[in-house]
């Protein structure tokens, strides 16, 4: 019997007697005999804790990408995480708790997520936020569905400069004959072609979904996009990078109606893609239309302040087929990670993270452009943390060359050209690492050419 | 308790970064710059720890005591697995590294897919869905894609019993399907005659939780799944109750075409106060050809790659899945092996039946015609006659140091209390819980106010949910000086 099961033969004897059966086979009698497995499942032999530790260290060792100098981004980012974050996450009180349906014994989770909602609202410049979605991409998809419910229109315009994996998720969630998704192309400078958007928008559009900064790191003025969609009685959904927001005009200030995003950058490890967290914020008047759980402040019978899951009549366990979403489990522990991270970094610290990402990415960008043959893909458009450059050799050549220095160079974007690479610089990257990057690229470009 | 915002004082910091080592020469154009501060708190690391540790002490949790939540399978979460998922080689890897540089993770995922196929009796598994509800959506999208591929796109009806989890109808709506309810019979099982009547040329799928939400195995399962197949539809099993079947029976053998698993229930990954979970989907080869992008494949040389199925219906998350959760489920299966998994189910069944036996004298148990599976449903009807509702008894349990059962679900039982002890509780724990329930049933008779006033031993008293909705306050209002 495994170390997780306390009962033994002496207990079983007493329990079977109480139940009034002879043994386990009597408890299985409702399963038709033909479906009862006669043999053990075909699984590898069990291992002890020590053996499993060794086995996992073997797997971890084969992930050779984990200890490289990371200039990869495109939706997942190598940011610094203060040690205290994990100390809080590893409190049994948080991570082994269930969804806070019994509010009186869940005030810890409830207040922490209330604080999370508050931080997300403040970052995005909105008045309301929910308790989390699965990830940024699925939050964007849910925001589109929400906009269609609110406006009763069935067309969404998505920015051509939206992360292509996010666009795939949006298309999947909206895959219905009566829904229409159109893409707004981007101009040579990477900003959206609003003259085409103005044509696509005609005849009833629920929302425009735009990424801020874009997939290519570009900071686009949201105001004209907001004006355009509002003129047509639709909503602006902004998929915002939270790390950029201490520096950038908040989406709320620029006219967004719903703001979603990926929270992995705020205290959550990259962990090969998950678990991450999608956030969702909205205008106050849209709060009751949001999907997912929402924590609200209230008081108890003695008038003490307390917190509960609120507006539950929107949710699947009450409203069933008329719910605003099917989401049940969300990413609560990741919301806690975001809250602890933002508390530790604080107003000045998070702004400094943002600023260092900004300054360092510009440093590397500038140094790369000094190499003959290297050019910026989207000239003159401001960018944050991430940028696309075109090398005179193939991006794969750059990738492989830099790998020899232990550097993950970035993400090749062949759609924009054979030599195009999307490069990310977080606050963790040092001048020394960037100088090594530049030196290696110049050597490859000098030695290679086309 | 004070919020973290109320602890803020200008100039305090909780973390520090290296000094910027490049010139700060770039600037953001004024029209794109933020106007004013964000409004994040300014606190020290010590204050942050004290705040969240104090908050944590107001939570009930599995490491503190029993969590008899029906259909939620709140079992013990092994500590070692938390460490394994945090190994730097596993937690520190970017999802877009070249596949040969993530060989360790991909080999775990490939093997985990195989484990789930074996456990469920299916031919393919996708690990992408982030939770059970997303697994359901994945499953219905697989079914719809398949039906479209055989020229049956018009099928848009999803049959489900009246005892279904709320996610089932909500997911069906998301998948653009129409819900057709199927009645339960006097034994608490799906009524085959009603199913036969409702299955037809528009049936896309039959969604069934098995064992069902009364904790009963659908004994006529062969008949049920055959009815749907004969009508041209497919069978979806909601795997929320898979803890009753590990190593004992497999959905793939019973006529189901697809099922999801809740790793945060059956496979011991922690609930995290509401998530993250993972809701992998296992299915037949016919359906697996439509899996979401990406899946892990093994190449001829034994290496692993990510690949997109040619007929994939799309993508559910930006990246591969809730990998950090999947690591822990893999560790659980490696730790238990085949015999260990079967012991999980056997002990879950024994524990549930023992508790049922101890409580049946004191509470009504509808549909009590024999042993239950891993959970059972009491009715508070007898106590309601005395003016004490199930909600009151649930709150009173908190005073006794237990978490409450799932209440008011399934909807087909009045004043329902759905109890699932799981296999990780010992006889002593079960007895203590039974004593608490029996004591409450006596309080209902003798001192009902103790129950209706409950809870009184908790960090806060009963909270006003109506006020929360009416005076909606879901974020801390901004500080005065910032307005």
Could you outline the blueprint of secondary structure elements for this entry?
The complex is a heterodimer of chains A (450) and B (483).
Chain A: H1 9-19, H2 24-27, H3 49-62, E1 69-70, H4 83-89, H5 92-95, H6 107-124, E2 128-129, H7 136-151, E3 155-159, H8 164-173, E4 180-184, H9 194-200, E5 207-212, H10 223-231, E6 235-240, E7 258-262, E8 278-282, E9 295-299, E10 305-309, H11 316-319, H12 332-369, E11 375-376, E12 386-390, H13 395-403, E13 407-408, E14 411-412, E15 420-424, H14 431-447
Parallel strand pairs in A: 1-13, 3-4, 3-5, 5-6, 6-7
Antiparallel strand pairs in A: 2-8, 7-8, 9-10, 11-12, 12-15, 14-15
Chain B: H1 45-56, H2 79-85, H3 88-91, H4 103-120, E1 124-126, H5 132-149, E2 157-161, H6 167-174, E3 178-182, H7 192-198, E4 203-209, H8 221-230, E5 234-238, E6 258-260, E7 281-283, H9 285-288, E8 295-298, E9 304-307, H10 323-359, E10 376-379, H11 381-384, H12 390-399, E11 406-407, E12 416-419, H13 427-446, H14 448-452, H15 465-470
Parallel strand pairs in B: 2-3, 2-4, 4-5, 5-6
Antiparallel strand pairs in B: 1-7, 6-7, 8-9, 10-12, 11-12
Helix pairs in contact in B: 2-10, 4-10, 5-6, 10-13
Could you characterize what this model shows?
- The complex is a heterodimer of chains A (about 450) and B (about 475).
- By secondary structure, chain A is an alpha/beta fold.
- Chain A has three domains: about 10-65, no CATH class; about 65-80 and about 345-445, Aspartate Aminotransferase, domain 1, CATH 3.90.1150; about 85-340, Aspartate Aminotransferase, domain 2 (3-Layer(aba) Sandwich), CATH 3.40.640.
- Chain A is built from 14 helices and 15 strands.
- Chain A has helices spanning about 10-20, 25, 50-60, 85-90, 90-95, 105-125, 135-150, 165-175, 195-200, 225-230, 315-320, 330-370, 395-405, 430-445, and strands at about 70, 130, 155-160, 180-185, 205-210, 235-240, 260, 280, 295-300, 305-310, 375, 385-390, 405-410, 410, 420-425.
- Chain A has a seven-stranded mixed beta sheet, with helices on both faces. A four-stranded antiparallel beta sheet of chain A has the order 11-12-15-14, with helices on one face.
- In chain A, helix 4 (about 85-90) runs antiparallel to helix 12 (about 330-370) and helix 13 packs across helix 14.
- The longest helix of chain A is centred in the last third of the chain and has 38 residues, at about 330-370.
- Chain A is globular.
- The N and C termini of chain A lie far apart (about 65 Å).
- Chain B is an alpha/beta fold.
- Chain B has a domain at about 80-335: 3-Layer(aba) Sandwich (Aspartate Aminotransferase, domain 2).
- Helix content of chain B is about 35%, strand content about 10%.
- Chain B contains 15 helices and twelve strands.
- Chain B has helices spanning about 45-55, 80-85, 90, 105-120, 130-150, 165-175, 190-200, 220-230, 285-290, 325-360, 380-385, 390-400, 425-445, 450, 465-470; strands at about 125, 155-160, 180, 205-210, 235-240, 260, 280-285, 295-300, 305, 375-380, 405, 415-420.
- In chain B, strands 1-7-6-5-4-2-3 form a seven-stranded mixed beta sheet, with helices on both faces.
- Chains A and B meet through helix 1, helix 2, helix 3, helix 4 and helix 5 of A and helix 1, helix 2, helix 3, helix 4 and helix 5 of B.
């Amino acid at each position: 019997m495994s170390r997780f099961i306390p009962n033994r033969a002496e207990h079983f004897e007493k329990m079977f007697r109480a139940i009034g059966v002879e043994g386990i086979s009597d408890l299985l009698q409702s399963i038709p005999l033909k479906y009862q497995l006669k043999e053990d499942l075909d699984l590898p032999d069990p291992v002890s804790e020590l053996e499993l530790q060794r086995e996992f260290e073997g797997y971890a060792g084969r992930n050779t990408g984990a200890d490289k100098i990371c200039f990869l981004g495109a939706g997942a980012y190598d940011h610094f995480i203060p040690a205290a974050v994990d100390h809080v996450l590893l409190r049994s009180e948080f991570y082994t708790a269930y969804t806070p349906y019994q509010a009186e014994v869940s005030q810890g989770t409830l207040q922490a997520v209330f604080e999370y909602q508050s931080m997300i609202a403040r970052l995005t410049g909105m008045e309301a936020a929910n308790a989390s979605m699965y990830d940024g991409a699925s939050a964007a998809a849910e925001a589109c569905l929400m906009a269609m419910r609110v406006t009763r229109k069935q067309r969404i315009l998505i920015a051509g400069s939206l992360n292509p994996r996010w666009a795939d998720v949006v298309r999947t969630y909206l895959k219905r004959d009566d829904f229409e998704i159109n893409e707004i192309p981007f101009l040579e400078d990477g900003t959206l072609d609003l003259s085409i958007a103005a044509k696509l928008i005609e005849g009833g559009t629920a929302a425009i979904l735009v990424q801020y900064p874009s997939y290519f790191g570009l900071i686009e003025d949201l105001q004209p996009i907001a004006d355009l969609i509002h003129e047509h009685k639709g909503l602006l959904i902004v998929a915002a990078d939270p790390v950029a927001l201490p520096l950038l005009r908040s989406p709320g200030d620029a006219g967004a109606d719903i703001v979603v995003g990926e929270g992995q950058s705020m205290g959550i490890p990259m962990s090969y893609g998950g678990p991450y967290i999608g956030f969702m914020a909205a205008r106050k008047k849209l709060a009751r239309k949001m999907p997912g759980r929402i924590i609200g402040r209230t008081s108890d019978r003695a008038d003490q302040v307390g917190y509960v899951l609120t507006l539950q009549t929107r949710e699947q366990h009450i409203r069933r087929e008329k719910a605003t979403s099917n989401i049940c489990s969300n990413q609560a522990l990741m919301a806690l990670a975001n809250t602890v991270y933002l508390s530790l970094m604080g107003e000045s610290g998070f702004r400094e993270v943002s600023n260092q990402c900004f300054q360092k990415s510009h440093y590397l960008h500038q140094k790369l452009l000094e190499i003959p043959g290297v050019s910026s893909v989207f000239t003159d458009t401001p960018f944050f943390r991430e940028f696309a450059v075109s090398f005179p050799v193939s991006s794969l050549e750059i990738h492989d060359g830099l790998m020899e220095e232990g550097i993950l160079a970035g993400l090749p974007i062949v759609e924009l050209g054979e030599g195009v690479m999307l490069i990310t610089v977080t606050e963790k990257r040092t001048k020394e690492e960037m100088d090594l990057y530049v030196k290696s690229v110049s050597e490859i470009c000098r030695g290679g050419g086309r | 308790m004070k919020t973290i915002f109320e602890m803020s004082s200008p100039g305090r910091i909780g973390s520090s970064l290296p000094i910027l080592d490049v010139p700060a020469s770039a600037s953001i154009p004024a029209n794109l710059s933020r106007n004013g501060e964000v409004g994040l708190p300014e606190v020290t690391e010590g204050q942050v720890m004290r705040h969240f540790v104090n908050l944590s002490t107001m939570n009930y949790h599995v490491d503190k005591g029993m969590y008899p939540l029906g259909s939620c399978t709140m079992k013990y979460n092994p500590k070692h697995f938390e460490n394994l998922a945090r190994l730097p080689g596993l937690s520190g890897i970017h999802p877009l590294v070249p596949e040969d540089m993530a060989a360790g993770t991909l080999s775990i995922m490939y093997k985990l897919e195989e484990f789930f196929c074996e456990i469920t009796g299916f031919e393919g598994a996708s690990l992408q869905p982030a939770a059970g509800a997303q697994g359901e959506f994945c499953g219905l999208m697989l079914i719809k894609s398949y039906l479209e591929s055989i020229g049956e796109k018009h099928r848009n009806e999803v049959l489900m019993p009246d005892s279904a989890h709320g996610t089932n109808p909500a997911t069906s709506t998301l998948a653009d399907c129409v819900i057709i309810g199927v009645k339960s019979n006097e034994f608490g099982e799906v009524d085959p005659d009603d199913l036969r009547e409702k299955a037809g040329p528009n049936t896309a799928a039959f969604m069934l939780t098995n064992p069902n939400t009364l904790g009963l195995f659908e004994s006529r399962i062969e008949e049920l799944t055959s009815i749907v197949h004969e009508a041209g539809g497919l069978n979806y099993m909601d795997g929320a109750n898979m803890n009753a079947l590990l190593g004992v029976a497999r959905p793939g053998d019973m006529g189901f075409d697809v099922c999801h698993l809740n790793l945060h229930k059956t496979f011991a990954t922690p609930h995290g106060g509401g998530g993250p979970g993972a809701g992998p989907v296992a299915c037949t080869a016919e359906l697996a050809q439509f899996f979401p992008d990406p899946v892990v494949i093994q190449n001829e040389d034994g290496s692993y790659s990510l690949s997109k199925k040619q007929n994939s219906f799309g993508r559910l998350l930006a990246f591969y899945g809730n990998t950090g959760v999947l690591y822990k489920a893999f560790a659980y299966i490696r730790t238990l092996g085949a015999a260990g998994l079967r012991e999980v189910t056997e002990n879950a069944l024994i524990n549930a039946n023992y508790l049922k036996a101890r409580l049946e004298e004191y509470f009504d148990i509808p549909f009590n015609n024999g042993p239950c599976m891993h959970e059972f449903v009491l009715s508070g009807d007898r106590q309601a006659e005395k003016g004490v509702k199930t909600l009151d008894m649930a709150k009173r349990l908190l005073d006794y140091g237990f978490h409450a059962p799932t209440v008011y679900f399934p909807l087909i039982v009045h004043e329902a209390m759905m109890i699932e002890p799981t296999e990780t509780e010992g006889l002593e724990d079960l007895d203590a819980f039974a004593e608490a329930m029996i004591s409450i049933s006596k309080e209902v008779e003798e001192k009902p106010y103790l129950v209706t006033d409950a809870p009184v031993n908790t960090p806060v008293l009963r909270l006003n949910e109506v006020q929360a909705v009416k005076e909606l306050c879901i974020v801390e209002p901004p500080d005065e000086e910032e307005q």
